[in-house]
Every structure is written in C-alpha cells, then in structure tokens.
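Question (not urgent): is this output format expected?
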Amino acid sequence: MGLAAIEPALDRVEEEASETAHRFARDVLRPIGAHLDRLSDPEEVIAAGSPLWDAFERYRALGLDVLEGAALGSGDGSDRSSLLESARLRFLVSEELGWGDAGLAISLGVSSFPRMFALLSGVPALVERFAAPGAADIGCWAITEPDHGSDSLMVTEPHFSDGRLRPNCVARRDGSHYVINGQKSAWVSNGTIATAAALFCTVDPSHGMGAGCVAVVPLDLPGVSRGRPLDKLGQRALNQGEIFFEDVRIPAEYVVVGPEAYASVVEAVLTLANASMGAIFVGLARAALEHAVAYAKERVQGGRPIFEHQSVKGRLFRIFMQVEAARSLAWRVMLQNAGGTPLVQYSIASKVFCTNAAFEAANAALQIFGGNGLSREYPIEKLLRDARASMIEDGCNEALSLIGAARL
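Got this back:
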C-alpha cells in the first residue's frame, strides 16, 4: 500500500530504492526497534553490543545516508531535475524507514546534519573532515536548550530577537577561534551518542536567539560532556540527551552560518526537517493500517473474521483515507521544496497533518485490536506511543502552526 504501488511514474531506480529501503526497514529496523523499545534502561540502548550500532552500519552500507547528507544542497547550482530526483528518492526512503521504526528513522536522518552543513559551507577542510566518502560520524541537530524548545524555531515571532530571553548556550569570538559555553537540552536527538554536532547557538545575547550561529562541532573536543539518555514514553530507540560545553574551542571556519543569515537558515532547516517528518509518519500511519487490516482478517468474533463486520470495514477505510491524504500532502511538499521555492508553511502543514494522522491512525488501529491492542505482545501499542511523540518533536504542532500561519 506504499506510494510505489500506486504511482505509475516511478522509474526503475526509484522502485529499486523503495524496495531496498523496505527490506532494510523490514529486516533491520523493525526487529531492532522492537528489541530496543523493550529495554528498561535507555543506557542499554546505546551500550556496546547493542543492535543500534548495526542499524547505523547497515544504513551506511546501503548508501542511504548520502541522500540525507545533501538534502539542503551544496550551492553548486544543481539543476532542478536532479534535485527533484533526489527529493523523490528521499521521500520513498523516508516513508519506508518510518514504516519500519520511526524513532530509528529520525536517528538515522538527523545523523547527517553535520555532513549537510559541511557540504553547504563549501569549506574544503570541513568537507574533508565531515563529508568525505566513508565518513562515519553520527551527527545531531543541537538546537533545543533547557529554557528554549519550540520557541527557538519561531523566527516569525517577536520573542525570537528579544534580548531579555537569555540563551543557555553561547559562542564567543576569540581571535581565530570561537569559545562555546553552555548546555543543550535532553531532547537533542542522538545527543549522547553523536560524534559531531550541527550546533545552533547564540553569539550576541543582547539580540536574543536571533543573533545566532551554526557551527559544525566535533564532540570529542576538550570541554564537551554528556548527560544520561532520556527515558521516554515512545521512540525509545531514538537516543536523546544533554550536551554540555565548557570553554570548547573551535576554529572560526567551523562556524558556517553567522547572525546575518541565522534566522533564514533556521527556517530553511525547519522546512527540510518538517517535510521529512511528514514522510516518516506517513510510513508509521501506513504500518498501523497494515497491522489493523491483517489482524481484522484473522481475528474471529461472532463466528467470522471481524473484517467481515461492516463497522470494522468502515473504520479501516477511514484509516486508509487518512493515510492516503497524508501521503499526498507529504509527497507534494517534498517535491515543491526541491523543484520550486521551499515554503515553510507547507512543510509545517505536512508535519502537523501527517503526525496527527499517524496518531489518529494508530489510535483507531489499536481500537480494532481491542484488548489485545493494549498488550505488548502486539506491535500496535508501540506505534501509538511513537506517534504520540511526533506531535511534540521537531517543534510541537501548536507552536509550528503559529509559524505557518505567520507565512500565510
């Protein structure tokens, strides 16, 4: 029931990419995600010998990480057709990864952020360090802070440049270097396992979050430390945790975006990230539908499979319509971002609509499972928990809606 099944315009490369990603999601992400979800201590998720590391290795071995690594482009004047081809592939892969395990899909996707910014900078030393063939960094998007979550994305709102709102992480220029001090919060995806960060922080606190920068930061430098992994309701396979900076020195060339472009880059990254979230959670919604249909065809009540009861068939078809509506929006937005002018309001619409649809689909699917849906013996309760997390991460849906509305 994926896009590849109904989209006649997919070419052979796209079909093969979708099939490869589906096998990876089925054979690697689903079993690993289910295993990691059951671990009671999030430290076990990232321990040596955890299957988490196998997911990263096999993802890189398939070359799927390269699709995400160049998602913002490199400023090299790539033609529109190649950008559209890349976007189509990224959508197909993202949906399949979300179908496999949404938390792991996010972890694998955000891992490419330092590579992406190194490529965008065009600085040879950064490209060589973070984006050379075979580079194996695990990256993170370090933007959220203890006192600043979704508000750090709200470039359209007055508070964004209000100097009275004190940042928790500041980079100060010191000759040919920057010195970083402060903290990023427990919600940084890959926070306690990342080897490099795309760090979004403030350089001039008197102008609030608006006077920020983006730096590519190796996380093995002196002065970097981590907190404990976060223990969460859902997406338990997605490592999240604090990063602390104490007089961490980086060369000035590692700062790839300065205050003059910071707000526009925050909006560009939000546009990219929200579009990807839309695609991933289309995959989760599809998974919930498939589980519900399969269960309804095998579960017997009243002397026949419950699929034969009209009320069940009607509920399943409502989920099906939600999935298809979400997929259509997410697909269109991903292509618009690549082939036209990226528009944040459309990406936000995709993220908000698709994550809401995923939660509603998982909730309706669990109801079809009845009491069994509450049991950890069945996969649907995990999908519900994973979908619930999506309505808060990458900007909570209510705050994102304010940004989108400001661009209407």
